[in-house]
Design a protein that fits this description.
Distance between the termini of chain B: 14 Å
Structural class of chain B: alpha+beta
Helix content of chain A: 55-70%
Order of helices and strands of chain B: EHEHEE
CATH architecture of chain B: 2-Layer Sandwich
Strand content of chain B: 25-35%
Number of helices of chain A: 14
Number of domains of chain A: 1
Strand content of chain A: under 5%
Largest sheet of chain B: 4 strands, mixed
CATH superfamily of chain B: TusA-like domain
Largest interface: A-B, 27 and 26 residues
Shape of chain B: globular
Shape of chain A: globular
Strand order of the largest sheet of chain A: 1-2
Number of strands of chain A: 2
Oligomer: heterodimer
Structural class of chain A: mainly alpha
Number of domains of chain B: 1
Helix content of chain B: 25-40%
Chain lengths: 352, 70
């Protein structure tokens, strides 16, 4: 009972912080968007040259460091790695492909929904379908294998990069890019973004909040524990948008969104499917990175590369449309996910 | 001698899936589950409780030994 109350309160705080971040300058319905923020950070590092989406987002840094600090404190920090790293890298890339077609990670899908963006209402069943597909493989014995304990330096790598990014953000050397216009130029002040990231990092580590796990556990076990957190985020943001007059229902003219329903649906199917096979949504991968899991860090590196790939090759959707090449990469991604799912079905060894 | 489910190095939901399967197929009235992280520990414990089993967790330094019994 106490656990349930905690995850509801945590979800509520995440929702509240998302509202605050938008109030202080983040793009609309983008208080938090792990995919968008990793994409912006990749742009800030110059991994892609899409000039409107370049900014080392402090939220990402905060999420990793918040999870790191609280995991150390709770003695849950553990340096592990070695469970199918190549596959995890590819799954990270594929999660990014789907998210940059839909224009948002699952967390932003919830925020968009609570802002009245009906395109997210099309994305949601796509996400559920993707997760359902993933669970079919889990039921048949899909596994990426066991991870092993590693030397501590492996686990410190993720938090170390987060600190390096923070130094680069504050010192702003010439080789780091900052968008002058577009979504990348819209952000809350550093201290607020960082603080919100840290706080959500702490809460998500303690509660194990995961947008994929919430729906996966419902499908697999009829366990609604994580789902309560997701619902709390939605309700708080919805109420906040109602109060501040930011609830603008409709398909057309929604902030950083397009109206191509088929691709909104299939984009989120890719994200959901890949998230199940990778064992966590984009948010969860950042949190696990903070806990010292090298396998999650590899997935996050895959997301960075996926973002660069999508923008360098003109595949990412724009608020205007999804290009034919972008549509093709969604289909290719789905095929790859079926191959990865099938190829990793093993007979589980039960007793030793 | 209780049956052993070795979930070390696996991340959720696999430990839960394996534990549920073991519970459904259990011939005796007790099971031992090994997990290596706190998330798996909590999830396995919750799943077992929801299936009406009692749970006893031991920290063995490197991971957790979860005893399940009816």
């Amino acid at each position: 009972m106490r656990d349930r109350l905690f995850i509801i309160i945590a979800g509520g705080i995440v929702g509240l912080l998302a509202l605050i971040l938008v109030l202080f300058g983040n793009p609309a319905n983008m208080g938090f968007c792990i995919a968008c923020f990793i994409r912006d950070t990749a742009g800030g590092l110059g991994l892609h040259r899409s000039v409107v989406v370049q900014y080392l987002r402090p939220e990402i840094i905060g999420l990793v460091l918040g999870a790191f600090i609280i995991a150390l404190h709770g003695r849950e920090f553990k340096s592990t790695a070695g469970s199918s790293p190549v596959i995890r890298f590819i799954l990270g890339m594929l999660m990014m492909v789907g998210a940059l077609i839909f224009l948002g990670c699952p967390l932003r899908m919830i925020l968009r929904l609570a802002g009245g963006d009906w395109n997210a209402l099309v994305g949601l069943p796509g996400y559920v379908l993707g997760i359902w597909l993933g669970t079919q493989f889990l039921k048949r014995g899909y596994t990426l294998g066991r991870s092993q304990e590693q030397t501590p330096v492996n686990g410190f790598a993720g938090p170390f990069f987060a600190v390096v990014f923070l130094i680069l953000l504050v010192t702003a050397p010439a080789f780091i890019f900052f968008s002058a216009e577009g979504p990348g130029s819209m952000h809350a002040p550093l201290i607020i973004s960082l603080g919100a990231g840290l706080l959500v990092g702490v809460l998500a580590q303690r509660t194990r909040l995961c947008t994929m796990g919430a729906i996966r556990d419902l499908i697999l076990f009829k366990d609604y524990h994580l789902f309560l957190g997701l619902a709390a985020i939605f309700v708080v943001v919805l109420i906040g948008n109602l109060i501040t007059g930011k609830l603008i229902p409709g398909f057309e003219g929604q902030p950083v969104a397009h109206t191509e329903s088929l691709w909104n649906f299939l984009g989120m199917t890719v994200v959901g499917f890949a998230a199940v096979l990778a064992g966590g949504c984009p948010l969860r991968q950042l949190i696990l990175t903070g806990e010292g899991q090298g396998d999650a860090l590899i997935t996050v590196v895959g997301m960075f590369c996926g973002a660069a790939f999508m923008h360098n090759f003109g595949l990412a959707a724009s608020p205007a449309s999804v290009s034919p090449a972008g549509q093709a990469i969604v289909i290719i991604s789905l095929v790859l996910l079926f191959i990865i799912g099938t190829a990793n079905i093993r007979t589980r060894t039960k007793a030793k | 001698m209780s049956e052993l489910v070795d979930c070390r190095g696996l991340s959720c939901p696999e430990p839960v899936l394996m534990t549920r399967q073991a519970i459904q197929q259990a011939s005796g009235s007790s099971l031992k589950v090994l997990v290596s992280n706190a998330v798996a520990r909590d999830n396995v414990a919750r799943a077992a409780k929801s299936m009406g089993w009692k749970v006893n967790v031991e920290n063995d330094g490197n991971g957790y030994k979860i005893k399940l019994y009816q």
